[in-house]
Amino acid sequence: MTMTAAHPRATEPRPRFSDLVAAEWIKLRSLRSTWLGYGATALAVIGFNVGTAYDTYHYWSEEDAGDRADFVRDGIPLQEAFTGNAATVMVLALGALGAMAVLGEYASGTIRTAFAAVPARRSVMAAKAVVVTAVTAVFGAFVAGVSFAATQAILDRRGLGVSLGDPGALRVVVASALLAPLCALVGLALGTVLRQTAATMIASVVVLLVLPVALTDGRHWSAVASHSTLYQAWNRLVSVAYHPLHYPWTIAGAWTVYAVWAVAAAVIAVAAVHRRDQ
Known about the structure:
mainly alpha, 12 helices, 73% helix
């Protein structure tokens, strides 16, 4: 009687986290619509900022001495480096782009393939969050840097331009640049939880824009809630001449809001896929 030796079944090595990051980068890079979205957003954001600076340059000669003095005293040249309109566009667009990084896979069903190949769902989502954060951070740095350089070059033709060494200038650029990855992470988290495009887009607009506008500083609870939103944290960080009416808050507090939103959004995005059917 012959005996056949049983050979242990070869097992596939578990993918390293760096492999998952590389795979997510390839997926994101291959989507032409994603880059068109980033390109259109960059043009819109920079266009708003440059357009505002050009209007100031063009109509400067029509301003009287008092208005000119107020313009400089209130730090408006630095505020025009990244305007509220530009921030609104970036908040909306980056929230949507962050959400689509996962919603597109849910819609096409490729997320099931990814989770079948890599059962460690949290690792897959963590890799996706890393890629989204890295790409949008580069995007934010580019847009904020170009906006600052272009607007101050225009204003400097009237003797109004500021440099990065001026008080508050670097803070404005960094805060505006970081707004991009923060909003993208929020969009990614909402998309992972809701999984429906329409619901995610509505939730993104409400969380990132409607609540910050609806909550006022008139009451203490409302002021605290308002100060806890990303948009108002950005608004505080880019405010050079800060004159609160009711409940003031600090620069450190605004940076803390940034940090809390980043951690919370990443944790929600990673945790939401655990033990859920796809």
